[in-house]
Design goal:
CATH topology of the largest domain: Ribosomal Protein L4, Chain: A
Largest sheet: 6 strands, mixed
Helix content: 25-40%
Radius of gyration: 27 Å
CATH class of the largest domain: Alpha Beta
InterPro entries: Ribosomal_uL4, Ribosomal_uL4-like, Ribosomal_uL4_dom_sf
Region (Disordered): 49-77
Oligomer: single chain
Keywords: Ribonucleoprotein, Ribosomal protein, RNA-binding, rRNA-binding
Strand content: 5-15%
Family: Belongs to the universal ribosomal protein uL4 family.
GO molecular function: rRNA binding; structural constituent of ribosome
Length: 209
């Protein structure tokens, strides 16, 4: 599949690149996408939730009242969960939410997500670009020239570029990443995908394995 390469002003450069059918033209596997997104979101959880249980509460261990004759239920410890300030019954404990996923399934999920965006015409390829200095105004102009300034966009670069990254950092609906950071969640979460030529080469070389 051939697509036109655009410049930073959104105009065609007269060149075309061939998108690999093995990466951008497969039949999407919805279940693989679901599994990969589920794993990504699970890994975002810190799992450090913790409540003190009865044995961990600081307090006196003496019996707080006599066993009989009070007219109320017997009670042996101020740290009992039935009292204010006592321990919590079956409280949350630290937990590891990490999930394992076969690397072939993850690769299939990324290819499926990219194929979906390509089929929906939500993916464009631009030539490698840079800004003279970090300016949000320049990045907004770039998005406007592509007609995606109001979309949730993902711009994928071939390598680190501080000027482009810093120019996008103040924009809530846009994100700039390197091709090595691309994952299924970021692809699915964006309405528009912008790939530079160098990023395209990196993505295809990684996903064709």
């Amino acid at each position: 599949m051939k697509v036109a390469v655009l410049d930073i002003t959104g105009k065609e450069t007269g060149r075309k690149v061939d998108l690999s059918d093995d990466v951008f033209g497969i039949e999407p596997n919805e279940h693989a996408i679901y599994l990969d997104v589920k794993q990504y979101l699970a890994h975002q959880r810190q799992g450090n939730h913790k409540a003190k249980e009865r044995a961990e509460i600081a307090g006196s261990t003496r019996k707080i009242k006599k066993q009989k004759g009070t007219g109320t239920a017997r009670a042996g410890s101020i740290k009992s969960p039935v009292f204010r300030g006592g321990g919590r019954i079956f409280g949350p404990r630290p937990k590891d939410y990490n999930q394992k996923l076969n690397k072939n399934v993850k690769r299939l999920a990324r290819k499926s997500a990219l194929s979906q965006k390509t089929k929906a015409k939500s993916l464009v390829v631009v030539e490698d670009f840079n800004f003279e200095a970090p300016k949000t105004k320049d990045f907004v102009s770039f998005l406007t020239s592509l007609g995606i300034e109001n979309n949730k966009s993902l711009v994928v670069l071939g390598g680190a570029n501080d000027n482009v990254y810093l120019s996008s950092r103040n924009l809530e609906r846009s994100e700039v990443i390197n091709s090595s950071e691309l994952n299924t969640y970021k692809i699915v979460n964006a309405n528009s995908i912008v790939l530079t030529e160098s990023a395209l080469e990196g993505i295809e070389s990684n996903l064709k394995k």
